[in-house]
Specification:
Blueprint: H1 10-38, H2 41-74, H3 85-107, H4 114-132, H5 137-149, H6 154-172, H7 182-186, H8 188-192, H9 201-216, H10 227-245, H11 249-257, H12 264-276, H13 280-295, H14 304-319, H15 321-334, H16 342-355, H17 359-372, H18 379-383
Length: 397
């Protein structure tokens, strides 16, 4: 048991209180200052949330130990006695030792670097996936937050690598049912297409690889058309459009290459977005992808591929003189394959886009339908009568 504490005079008690208060403030202020100087904001906020309770316990513990040392060891039995040298040395050790201890703990914040934190989150995600067959919600939130605030390039790539590793682990698991990754995949636009720190071409291309894997590679045949796959297809379309909006042409071309028979809407959306933003190479690439999908059919008729192809061609036709020339050439090549006729296919496409509330596309088809007048030749002159171009400049072979 501790001996009875010596009686304290008002002067001693006031001095101890001031010293203890100074230590307490120091133990909080110095780590905060060091963290402010050496860590990024999102890492600092993450570390504060992780260490908040632990840091409070540490401050209380240090203050309690210092109080006991002051009262039972450092305080002289009688205030009139001379302060012993060994107690002076012990006082210095207590104060400086506590200060350096707190300083050392502050430097430990360097352990909360982005790579370290993301590595811990990866372990938490894989652990929850193995044990509970689902992803830990808080780990997902933290990972998405770091990805959202990370700089384009390496910092976002660190998060995308974790997502790819989690996807690989989930698909290799015998317990994977096709709906464990929906939440993680749904956050890819938050990571890559936010206004503050959007991703670069490499980041979008890596996301495209992850989504293609989720869409096309399944460990068991019965896992087709799962919620994860549907989400992956939706995210391919969304990220492809965002890549166009951000001016990431290389990444947008990558997403166009992901278009297949079941995702022709992606080519239409990317092509339309590219045409509106005057990125014509990308718009033509999307149009050619739709042409390829249409050519795989026996004929062009009342189907979604044809409706998307003619819808994008209609936007080409009404956009400008040069794009209308390209539309005229393409329609001339497609007209013989339209069943029963080009006019009927345009009517079907008009109804399709009206039913899907794409009224701007339906209006463009209506203008094109009126301009065709039963034949494609001369389409550009009828659409832009006030801006004629010499015929010998058009589509010379």
């Amino acid at each position: 048991m501790l001996p009875d504490p010596p009686s304290l005079t008002e002067e001693w008690a006031s001095a101890y209180l001031q010293i203890l208060f100074g230590l307490f403030v120091f133990s909080i202020g110095i780590p905060a200052l060091i963290a402010q100087l050496i860590t990024q904001e999102e890492i600092r906020l993450f570390a504060q949330r992780m260490l908040r309770r632990w840091w409070w316990y540490l401050c209380i513990g240090l203050s309690s130990i210092a109080s006991l040392l002051f009262v039972f060891l450092l305080h002289p039995a009688e205030s009139t006695k001379e302060f012993p040298p060994w107690k002076s040395l012990l006082a210095v050790i207590v104060i400086t030792g506590a200060s350096f201890f707190v300083l050392g703990l502050s430097l430990l914040l360097r352990g909360y670097e982005r790579e370290t934190i993301i590595g811990r989150l990866k372990k938490n995600l894989l652990k929850s996936l193995n044990r509970k067959n689902r992803l830990d919600d808080q780990a997902v939130k933290d990972l998405v937050y770091l990805g959202e605030k990370g700089n384009p390039g390496h910092e976002k790539e660190l998060v995308l690598r974790v997502i790819k590793d989690v996807v690989d682990a989930a698909q290799k698991s015998d317990r994977y049912s096709g709906d464990q990754l929906d939440r993680l995949l749904h956050e890819l636009p938050t990571i890559l297409a936010n206004k503050e720190e959007p991703g670069n071409d490499g980041n979008f291309e890596m996301a495209a690889q992850i989504l293609r894997q989720m869409r096309d590679e399944f460990p068991r045949e019965q896992l087709h058309s799962t919620r994860d796959q549907i989400t992956a297809i939706r995210m391919i379309t969304l990220l492809g459009i965002e890549a166009v909006r951000l001016g990431l042409e290389r990444a947008a071309f990558t997403f166009v290459q992901l278009v297949e028979s079941g995702s022709h809407e992606l080519a239409f959306e990317i092509g339309l977005s590219a045409l509106r933003s005057r990125r014509f190479r990308l718009a033509v690439a999307a149009l050619r992808k739709l042409e390829t999908l249409a050519e795989n059919q026996e004929s062009l008729s009342n189907d979604e591929v044809t409706s998307h192809l003619l819808g994008l061609l209609a936007h080409f036709a009404v956009s400008s003189i040069s794009t209308s020339q390209h539309a005229e050439k393409t329609l001339s090549a497609l007209a013989p394959y339209c069943s029963p006729s080009l006019k009927e296919c345009l009517n079907n496409a008009y109804r399709y886009h009206c039913e899907n509330l794409r009224f701007d596309t339906a209006d463009s088809i209506a203008v094109l339908l009126h301009a065709v007048e039963g034949e494609v030749d001369g389409l550009q002159r009828r659409l832009f009568p006030d801006k004629q171009i010499s015929r010998n400049l058009l589509f010379q072979e």
